[in-house]
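Supplementary Methods S3. Complex input for the NDP-bound model.
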Amino acid sequence: MSKRTADGEHRTYETGLHPDPSVTPPDDAVMILLGASGDLTRRKLVPALFQLYRSGLMPGRFAIIGVARRPYDDPSFRERLREGIRERCAPQDEEDRCSEFLEHVEYFRGDLEAPDTYASLRDHLDRGGDRYPSGRLFYFSLKPDLFIEAAHHLREHGLIDSDSAAQAGEGAWRRAVIEKPFGHDLESARALNRALLEGLDEKQIFRIDHYVGKEAVQNVMAFRFANTLFEPVLNRTCVDHIQLTAAEALGVGGGRGGYYDRYGAIRDMLSNHLLQLLALLTMEPPSGLDSDAIHNEKTKVLKALRVDWRGDASPAFCRAQYAAGVMDDGTRAVGYRDEDRVDRDSETESYAAVRLSIDNWRWSGVPVFVRTGKRMKRKLTEVAVHFRHPPLKLFRGVECEGAHCDVRGVQPNKLIFRIQPQEGIFLNMAVKRPTLPFVVEQADMDFSYAGKWGRELPEAYERLLLDALRGDTTLFTRSDEVEAGWSVVEPVLKAMDRTPLYSYPAGSWGPAEADRLFQCSDLPDECLCRKTGLVRAWHNPQ
Ligand SMILES: NC(=O)C1=CN([C@@H]2O[C@H](COP(=O)(O)OP(=O)(O)OC[C@H]3O[C@@H](n4cnc5c(N)ncnc54)[C@H](OP(=O)(O)O)[C@@H]3O)[C@@H](O)[C@H]2O)C=CC1
Ligand SMILES: O=C1O[C@H](COP(=O)(O)O)[C@@H](O)[C@H](O)[C@H]1O
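Predicted complex, serialized as structure tokens:
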């Protein structure tokens, strides 16, 4: 059975992608995992590969070579991976299948800062003859400081090669999957793009953003462009504002404190995952479903995104750090600065909220509020589109449910994309209660994956690894998209030192100061809340 903790994280997953006869397994490949003794390989990558294997979606012939410095040999490395598979996929009665899969795995010990390692790896692959298929996928699961160096050495030693399939013959493709973080600002992202593009073509580079691989994120596009009803109202005429929340109940303990303390919420979540999600929600319809058509539209809207600065009285950005507190399940959580591998005087934000505007024809004047944080009340990722009031105040004087009323009688519609957990889509609307007095109250029309298909959704890594093996870049991030994302947050990063760092108790919805992003006393006349009295506030589910 699959398990879900109270905050919806650490779930095991048994179901995997449902293979379809029309989906052919990818071409034969050898996957070289750089940084294979690390957490990501054990917890996410190898369990996802096992799931693909289980679903018959691995190549007919494949090998997985893990590279790192720690002194494993093949059997001890396989044992480490077997534990990860057990934890995540729970294959109680599938130990044999697991062993069969692990037969394809081997360990190659080496220091990726030393050029010799690349030379020996190349020789090892060459000597392997038929054991290793000619298609090669290099997965950068390394500490990010090593990305540029590794790309450089791989190229120098002929392990990656631009357009090598054309040069070396059919089947001899080369690809690189690059983990996040993709740089730490615009300049470093550009440098990393340059380094990768020296050795590979754009089509050979797979910059992973696992949010894009989530089913409920992919569904945003289906919902918008496969229905007639909704797309025509997603614009400045009908939408009052958009809110995007990515709250996590987990803190930064568990080994990632060192990384997180250098990056913080803006770089870790907002500059990539949340902007990708926002791009899918707000982009124009692509001309087709091919990779370039989608990336072109996403890039266009990312380039139209700006931080909505309006002066000090209405800040556009709020950052904060969690203090000790009590979580929803009653456990006590330590404060951020007391977490393992975090600087005791750290000024890194574990929470960030920002108000954005989209300066294009469709969205001009519609504010977008985005927030993300660790140790918040519970795990929740959702996008809420808040619509305007209907033009006529027909129901103003009519009674409505106390908690749901606003000054105009009924609440405007909300369309909520629940990305996780309990993935689904909810349309909140006003309806007449079937009673004698005319009472209007809010009700939901909802779609949930669990309700319709009754099964856990596959992990994003499964889908993304499969696509990388098939050479499909659609769900990966293109270089100009990454740079556009960094350009959006660049002004915030520059203003960081002058922005106060607030505090919020672990287990809350974040700092009270983040409410000031909605303040509109100083905003121009077109500000809706001044005209209509509509109260904007963070949408915190009960
Ligand atoms: N863990 C997670 O949940 C997530 C991770 N990521 C990203 O994935 C990547 C890997 O993360 P994670 O697995 O957590 O990190 P870890 O620190 O757990 O692992 C890092 C890996 O890099 C290897 N490594 C470091 N230096 C060298 C070197 N000089 N030569 C060879 N190998 C080296 C380490 O092996 P050894 O010490 O044996 O040499 C280890 O296998 C990072 O870019 C991270 O940002 C992204 C999203 C989530
Ligand atoms: O990339 C990252 O994502 C996770 C959150 O991912 P989710 O799929 O559990 O929502 C986040 O915890 C981590 O800090 C970040 O690097």
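The chain has two domains: 29-207, 215-532. Residues 257-282 form the longest helix (26 residues).
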